[in-house]
Each structure stands twice: as structure tokens, then as C-alpha cells.
Automatic annotation (TrEMBL), chains A, B:
Coiled coil: none
Species name: Streptomyces katrae
InterPro entries in the cross-refs: Class_I_gatase-like, DJ-1/PfpI, INH-QAR
Every DJ-1/PfpI domain range: 2-161
Protein's name in the database: DJ-1/PfpI family protein
């Protein structure tokens, strides 16, 4: 089984690393980081580079594709190289997945038409013009399409998908290995839970862009 | 304020990326990934490279140092270049932090003697010979030393430290930005919560090594 993690300029690191940390532990899986051009790809704030070992045209039949998000999804949503690759590999994937605004890339490639999906809470509405039905859920399974909400949600998506692929017991072992027993010091991780004033301020001046 | 994230061969990606994703958002912070030699550093399973932009001797006075763990801490625990650097930068840090077995590197550098600390649950006992007092807590603050438990705990540590540095409201904004509202599909993230048989099996054959 091959797992391809797409990288592109200004992606958000945790979007990619969360699912990688769980799914790369599928027995006998080969995980490969892929980008339009091989080499280091810098994250949203520019301070970190992750290495894409393969170019898009070197990875043609992954079983799982993982598309991270970033604060400027508009750029890749207009990049034919990325959209063509997503359409091409999706034809044979077992699972096509995204985290955060990565779902907007899937949507722009025409892959979420008529499907329930999610995205970063600030970007949910942007799924609508592509025929997707946005939900407020943290992880959405619709057929082979799995979309997760903002940034950190890829951890939950990865574990959930791992359970479907390798079984509940195996997924629990990976959860224990990663000691994923979250204890955030605040309870402000969703627009429903965060202070209303903070949510309003973020909506008014999207800090991601 | 400068934040230095240490990389070394076979580190665990999420250990480094979790705290990076929150702490790099400290206003006016400069985050730098540092290793014995600059360039790509491969993760524990070898499938991902993160780029260290600076060599150890180029980063001499970081305000915060973050030490990730990995499945073979013994290697760096005997690496004088890393231990000397940790001791040298610790002399002037405001916060010296670790995730997972990264605490064993701090301990081996002599920095946790007499301090309460944590580590990956499979490695807690190894803190004792270095004079540290292991705890089962997920994030431990003892003076300027902050240690976190296994892999994913760096997210909680990062948010907690962010709150102390930039204030609760700012930390909540970053939590909301990262949509950190964890909903793991299983409740097996700690040895107290996971099935006893699974915990026993992992203790018998440490899957990290």
C-alpha cells in the first residue's frame, strides 16, 4: 500500500504531519511525500521545510492520498499541475483525504461534488460553489473521501482511517504509542466552544490569510 | 525571541511539529530548526525529512529550546555535540523544553537533576538514574523546564507554554486557529486508559525500538 502526502508552498505542517504520524504505521505501507518539484517545500510561516522526495509524475497510483491545507488555498486551487494530479490519482485511490483547507483543493479538482465534507471552520462556506455539502463535523467520511477540519484534526482523521484499514486494536496501539490522550489547557478549539468575541474577531479579519 | 527546535537523525516528526505549530505563532518570535549539520534530517521511520536551516554552533542564545524525542534516544544521549549544545544554550534560555524521549536528552545533559519531569510512558523509568523524578502527568512545568509525555503531548505543552508567554487569550486564539478540539475515535491514549493486555504487550516488546 502506498500513501502519498502532497506538499506545496505554504502548506501547514501539522496538517501533513498529523495523518503521517498515524497512517505511516500501517503495516507494510510505503509513505511518500510528493510535490510539483522534489526538494524542500516551505510551510505557511516560511520557517520550516519538509522534503518532498518525489515529483507528482513519479507517484501515479497511490492507494491513499493526503492533502494538507494552508492559509492561501486559492493558489493551488488554480494550479493545473496539482488539480490534474489529484484527479488522476483519485481514479485509483482507495482513500482520498484532506485536512483543513486541503478539502478546497479536492473540491476545486471536482472530487467533492455532491459529497458531504469539512474544512477549516473559517473556510467551510467555500466548499459550496463546488457542489460539496459542508458539515461542522471534525472528520467526515463520505465513501472513499475523508475530509478533516482545521490543522490538528488530521490526528483524529488518521486514527479513524487507521482503524478502518488495520483494525480497531491496531489503531489503539498506535494511539497509545503516540500517547494521544489530549489534555488541551483551554477549551477554545472550535467556534462553538471559543469565546464568542474571539470567534467574531477571527471571522472579521481572517488571520489565516 | 528566538525558538530553536533541535533535529537529529530518527527524531519523531510530531514531537517537533506539535510545539512548533503553536509556539512559532508567538508574536515577533523567530523559529529556527537546528541540527548538528544543516540540511535535511530524516524521521524515525526514514520516510520524511525536515530541514535544519542552521548548525548547532550558529544558534547560541535561543530563548526557548525544544527537544523532540525518537525511538532510539540512546544515540543522542551519548552525542557530546548535542549534549554540550544543550548545556550551553540552557545557560541563557528562558524555557528549556522537551517532548517524548527528548527529556532523556535533557536528563543526559544533566539538566533535570532534582527536577520533576515526564517522558514517553515506556521510557519514564529511564529518567531516574539522572536524578529526575518521573511523573505520570502529560505536561510538567518545573521552573523553566517543561517536559511533555509521548509524541502528541507536544501540542498540549505548546499551548500551555504559549499561554504563559503570550497570555491566555492569545493561546486560545491559536487553539481556535489550529481547531484543536480533539475527538480521538478511541480512548486508548495512555497506559491507564488503553486495554491492559495491549499495555502489557507493548511493555514486553517496546515497539519504539
Amino acid at each position: 500500500m502506498q500513501i502519498a502526502v502532497l506538499l506545496y508552498d505554504r502548506f501547514t505542517a501539522l496538517d501533513a504531519v498529523g495523518p503521517y504520524e498515524t497512517l505511516s504505521r500501517i503495516p507494510d505501507a510505503e509513505t511518500v511525500f510528493v510535490a510539483e518539484r522534489p526538494g524542500p517545500v516551505r510551510t505557511d510561516n516560511g520557517v520550516l521545510g519538509l522534503v518532498a522526495d518525489k515529483a507528482l509524475d513519479e507517484v501515479t497510483r497511490p492507494d491513499i492520498v493526503i492533502v494538507p491545507g494552508g492559509p492561501q488555498p486559492e493558489v493551488e486551487m488554480k494550479n493545473p499541475a496539482v488539480l490534474d494530479w489529484l484527479r488522476a490519482v483519485d481514479a485509483t485511490t482507495t482513500w482520498t483525504t484532506s485536512v483543513c483547507t486541503g478539502s478546497l483543493l479536492l473540491a476545486a479538482a471536482g472530487l467533492l461534488d455532491g459529497r458531504r465534507a469539512t474544512s477549516h471552520w473559517l473556510y467551510l462556506d467555500r466548499l459550496v460553489p463546488f457542489g460539496a455539502e459542508p458539515t461542522g463535523e471534525r472528520v467526515v467520511f463520505d465513501g472513499k473521501y475523508v475530509t478533516a477540519a482545521g490543522v490538528s484534526s488530521g490526528l483524529d482523521m488518521g486514527l479513524g482511517l487507521l482503524g478502518r484499514i488495520a483494525g480497531d486494536e491496531y489503531a489503539q496501539a498506535v494511539q497509545l504509542l503516540c500517547e494521544y490522550d489530549p489534555q488541551p489547557p483551554y477549551d477554545a478549539g472550535s467556534p462553538e466552544k471559543a469565546p464568542a468575541e474571539l470567534v467574531a474577531r477571527m471571522r472579521a479579519a481572517n488571520p489565516l490569510s
